[in-house]
């Protein structure tokens, strides 16, 4: 059977509350939470997370009499006890399809889980087979996406974050605003070229959108409502964390701190990557623990993690007896 695994919004809220309590990384959205849960190397962790599955299709079905329509088979699956969305509807005309699309869009905030559109399919399986596929998708189905939700707010400041590779990313600090049911207070500005393209200044009124209903981004500046006291965004020439020189290689959009592991920010991000599930997968070594280890200067390189004593670890917040 084919379908989609997802996480309901109340479940995500509980998981993130527990992550904050234990000093672990929170999930940005239900989509990341569901994907991260399925990719766990330890199936016991996945089993503890309440995931939901909706069946919407099938691979190969052989034997027995089966309905000749897509809806008929979904109803058959439901009779077999498989989970099928109760939002599946048969429409008889394009107008009815459009009306149902708008109905789901209207009901979207109360569903209890995130969706970004409606999939419209040809009901007749014989016609589906006749229509066939293009390279990566069927000709008999189309995803009718909802428009991204947008809101206006003000840029209160622009800060510069330093990543694991030294990349310096400008981040807009916003007057908090609700966008698609999520309180947004930050939005990435990517790089100096993007700031120049937008013509953005600190204090500007801007339009915010959650791209793919997930990542907050600044769409444009409302120039007609620009306040008189806006300030230019000045890209740093020295790292805001370690004061090392910032370099931008010709032809690249990203500026980088040249400090390497001397830079506290790069050190933290490198260590977080080192202990992450994709690397050593060190259980219990969350972001908050790494932050403390670097700030207390217990760890300067990944090798230092292997020489930590129990005394140092138990002195950290969330690690004591």
Would you summarize the structure shown here?
With 321 residues, this protein is an alpha+beta fold. It has helices at 9-22, 30-38, 43-48, 70-79, 94-107, 125-131, 192-198, 264-275, 287-295, 310-314, and strands at residues 2-6, 52-57, 117-121, 141-145, 150-162, 167-179, 182-188, 201-202, 205-211, 215-221, 231-232, 246-247, 255-257.
Question: Key features?
Answer:
single chain, 321 residues, alpha+beta, D-amino Acid Aminotransferase, Chain A, domain 1, OB fold (Dihydrolipoamide Acetyltransferase, E2P), DNA polymerase, domain 1, 3 domains, 7-stranded antiparallel beta sheet, two-stranded antiparallel ribbon, 29% helix, NAD, DNA damage, DNA repair
What does the model show?
- It is an enzyme of class 6 (ligase).
- The protein is α+β, with helices and mostly antiparallel strands.
- The chain folds into 3 domains: 2-145, DNA ligase/mRNA capping enzyme (D-amino Acid Aminotransferase, Chain A, domain 1, 2-Layer Sandwich), CATH 3.30.470; 150-257, Nucleic acid-binding proteins (OB fold (Dihydrolipoamide Acetyltransferase, E2P), Beta Barrel), CATH 2.40.50.140; 260-314, Orthogonal Bundle (DNA polymerase, domain 1).
- The protein is built from 10 helices and 13 strands.
- Strands 5, 6, 7, 9, 10, 12 and 13 form a 7-stranded antiparallel β-sheet that branches. The protein has a two-stranded antiparallel sheet with strand order 1-2. The protein has a two-stranded antiparallel sheet with strand order 3-4.
- The radius of gyration is 25 Å and the shape is globular.
- The mean pLDDT is 91.
């Amino acid at each position: 059977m084919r379908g989609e695994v997802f996480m309901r919004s109340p479940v995500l809220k509980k998981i993130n509350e527990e992550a904050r309590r234990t000093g672990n990384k929170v999930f940005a959205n239900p989509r990341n939470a569901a994907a991260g849960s399925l990719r766990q190397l330890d199936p016991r962790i996945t089993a503890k997370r309440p995931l939901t599955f909706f069946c919407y299709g099938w691979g190969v079905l052989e034997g027995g009499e089966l309905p000749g329509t897509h809806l008929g088979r979904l109803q058959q699956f439901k009779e077999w006890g498989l989970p099928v969305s109760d939002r599946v509807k048969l429409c008889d005309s394009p107008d009815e399809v459009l009306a149902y699309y708008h109905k789901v869009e209207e009901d979207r905030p109360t569903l209890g889980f995130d969706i970004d559109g409606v999939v419209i399919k040809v009901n007749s399986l014989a016609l589906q087979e006749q229509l066939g596929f293009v390279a990566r998708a069927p000709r008999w189905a189309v995803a009718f996406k909802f428009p991204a939700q947008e809101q206006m707010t003000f840029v209160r400041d622009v800060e510069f974050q330093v990543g694991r590779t030294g990349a310096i990313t400008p981040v807009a600090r916003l007057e908090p605003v609700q966008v698609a049911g999520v309180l947004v207070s930050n939005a990435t500005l990517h790089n100096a070229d993007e700031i120049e393209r937008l013509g953005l200044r600190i204090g500007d009124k801007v339009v915010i959108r959650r791209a793919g209903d997930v990542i907050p981004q600044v769409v444009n500046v409302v120039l007609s409502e620009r306040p008189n006291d806006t300030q230019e965004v000045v890209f740093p020439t020295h790292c805001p964390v370690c004061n090392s020189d910032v370099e931008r290689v010709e032809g690249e959009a990203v500026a980088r701190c040249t400090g390497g592991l001397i830079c506290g920010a790069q050190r933290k991000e490198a260590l977080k990557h080192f202990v992450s599930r994709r690397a050593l997968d060190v259980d219990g070594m969350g972001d908050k623990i790494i932050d403390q280890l670097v700030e207390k200067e217990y760890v300067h390189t990944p090798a230092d993690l292997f020489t930590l004593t129990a005394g140092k670890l138990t002195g950290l917040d969330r690690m004591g007896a």
